[in-house]
Structures are given as C-alpha cells and as structure tokens.
Specification:
The chain is an alpha/beta fold and 214 residues long. The chain has nine helices and six strands, in the order βαααααβαβαβαββα.
C-alpha cells in the first residue's frame, strides 16, 4: 500500500449518520426560528463541528443560539442513533483488510468524542478502534476546513503528513486534508463528486476504496 496511515472521517464514512443528524439539526434550527431544510443542513454543516452552526446562524441573523443548544442537539441525535444508526455498508470489510495487511488507521472526526463513541458502540465499530486511534475536533483549536485535526492525528500516530491519506465525504473535510498536505479520496455515496472538488479520486462504494489506496 502506498500509505502508512489511513485517516477516516467518521460520520458518513464509517457510520451512516449524516441523514439522521442533518434531519434532526434542520428540524431543531427550524423549531428555534431559523428555517433550515435538510438539503441546506447538508450543504452548510455536513462535515463541520457544531461551533460552525453557531457561527453561521450568528453571521446570517445576528442572533445567538440558546446556551443549551449543543446539549439538546446531541441528546436528540444520540437517542436517534440508538434507534436507527447502522455502519456504512462495507466499512468493516475495509477495516478487516487493513488489519490483515498491517496497515495503520485511525478516525478523525468533527464530532465530539462522545458522539464518535456512541456511534461506534451502536454499530459495533468500537471493536475496530483503540482509544488512542480516535481523534475529535475537541482535541484541536480549529475544526475542518482547517488542517489542525488531520495534522494532530498524524502526529499522534507517528506518521508524516505526506505518508497519510484521508477518506472523506464532505467539502470541508476535503479542504482540510489538502491543507494538511495529505492525499484524500472522496466518498460520493451522499455527496456528488462535483461538490468534493480537490480530491485525488472518488468512489461511491466502500468495496472500491482499497483499490484506490493500493
């Protein structure tokens, strides 16, 4: 394999959470008086840490979201995860092949550590990730599209950025990977390739990923 470390985004790449979380986010924002469609939520917030929601709403409306916004949003999302969340089809097959081949991997997500762990427990992916292989935007000062999270993950895993590859499904994630000096492949199961400009390649089925990485 051409890379020493595979860095996976989490939401939409390992766990099929984006439809769930963006349905809840758009509904909650609308409930608070900020009408937001599901499509608009995907466009504006997919791949971003929750602080981006605060920033965008304040920039557009001049209003501040409630102090308990994050807590309420996460509680609703976690409850839905427990009912509905599934792993992305083929994700465990990819992880199993990386383990068999001795290739290092980790996850670097805009979500909180709690969100990552809730999703992994629900889907059984926790069996594939040691605690020290899980990185969150909580660990760094700036989330995607800044490169900080991916650079942090590479440093902690002991791999130079140019020897890393990122697997992403969001525009912000693609931008972050490129800013970090890493190759990146765009997963187009939910996001069209034209919205993931800058990736080294694209795939719409997890079964295609290993061929790209080899």
């Amino acid at each position: 394999m051409r890379y020493d470390l595979i860095i996976f985004d989490n939401d939409g790449v390992l766990v099929d959470s984006e439809p769930i979380s963006n349905t809840i986010l758009s509904g909650y924002l609308t409930e608070l008086g900020h009408p937001t469609s599901y499509e608009e939520s995907l466009r504006d917030y997919m791949g971003a840490a929750v602080h981006r929601v605060h920033d965008v709403i304040q920039e557009r409306t001049g209003q501040v979201l409630p102090v308990d916004f994050d807590e309420t949003l996460h509680a609703r999302i976690f409850a839905a995860f427990e009912r509905e969340l599934q792993p992305v089809a083929g994700a465990t097959d990819v992880l199993g092949k990386l383990v068999a081949d001795g290739v290092a991997y980790c996850v670097a997500s805009s979500g909180t550590h709690e969100r990552i762990r809730v999703g992994h427990r629900r889907t059984g992916l926790d069996e594939w990730f040691e605690d020290e292989w899980v990185f969150s935007s909580e660990d760094v000062g700036r989330g995607k599209p800044a490169p900080d999270l991916f650079l942090h993950a590479a440093e902690r895993m002991g791999v130079a950025p140019e020897r890393c590859v990122v697997v992403e499904d969001s525009r912000l994630g693609i931008q972050a990977a490129r800013a970090a000096g890493m190759d990146v492949y765009g997963f187009t199961a939910m996001t069209p390739a034209e919205r993931l400009e800058g990736a080294n390649g694209y795939f719409d089925d997890m079964g295609q990923l290993l061929g790209l990485l080899g």
